[in-house]
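Q: What changes when NAP is included in the input?
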Amino acid sequence: MDTDLKVGFVGAGAMARALIAGVIRTGLYEPRQIAVNNRHDLEKLHGLQQEFGIRAAAGKADLHGAEVLVLAVKPKDMAQALEELVPHLRDGQLLVTVAAGIRTSFIEKRCGRPLAVVRAMPNLPSAVQAAATALAPGRYCQPQHLAVAEQLFRAVGETVTVAEDQLDAVTGLSGSGPAYVYYMIEGLEQAGATLGLEPEVARKLAVQTVFGAAKLLLQSGESPESLRQRVSSPGGTTVAALESLSSRGWNQALQQAVLRATQRARELGMA
Ligand SMILES: NC(=O)c1ccc[n+]([C@@H]2O[C@H](COP(=O)([O-])OP(=O)(O)OC[C@H]3O[C@@H](n4cnc5c(N)ncnc54)[C@H](OP(=O)(O)O)[C@@H]3O)[C@@H](O)[C@H]2O)c1
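A: The predicted holo structure follows.
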């Protein structure tokens, strides 16, 4: 058995790439301790091998020695990927799944042995090491397994741990969340253009405003409410804008959006 192998990836897509970049950048694993297997697209696999110096695994058998296996395939491909992987699993391995909507029980049932499974819900900014990831332990998961998964996802951003039945709400909030922020930025850009700003000027201002507001919130330790009040002088411009947003139901619209995404995640879930 290959004792030098620490982590094996099933799937060589965008999420695997983000995690590989993160764990190598932070020094959590060395490239030679990482192996990746892909289905058809060998160009993508060899691209990762060249870029990061990791090992390309020709088949699932080559992942047998890994302590951690990251299941980074689309939800629709998970059953097939597990069918191929299960004959090569061994006791004591940790399975980490990032597939949206696939419950730990779906994986546990197919493993044929009581393996620890952690389900993760990262989001798109994992590509720039700024993900918000929620982790949920499966039935056989011990604290040390969760700690390993936490280390893995800390390499691409911040993590929280929740019970698995809360992951649908996480999907509604932070999983789909980047799209809400982009939608807001699009609205700011359109408003800027309507008021005569050049498109690239409006975009630069809108993006930096969102980035700066989030950075200040993170670094100041203040609440969003208190920061909002700091820029809202009575009778001033911000108050006028916030009153306009509020009278059009901005807050309710956002809450409904998160609720709707959460319901949709529940409908799409596979146990
Ligand atoms: N990207 C994100 O920001 C994000 C955020 C949260 C969650 N996720 C979750 O992460 C998972 C992966 O997403 P992604 O964006 O990385 O998708 P992706 O870019 O499409 O990558 C999926 C990879 O899985 C491979 N694959 C499929 N079946 C396989 C099998 N049986 N054995 C080995 N490899 C197999 C595909 O290979 P081929 O190219 O050869 O078909 C493809 O390279 C999804 O379940 C998604 O829900 C992603």
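Observations recorded in class: The mean pLDDT is 96.
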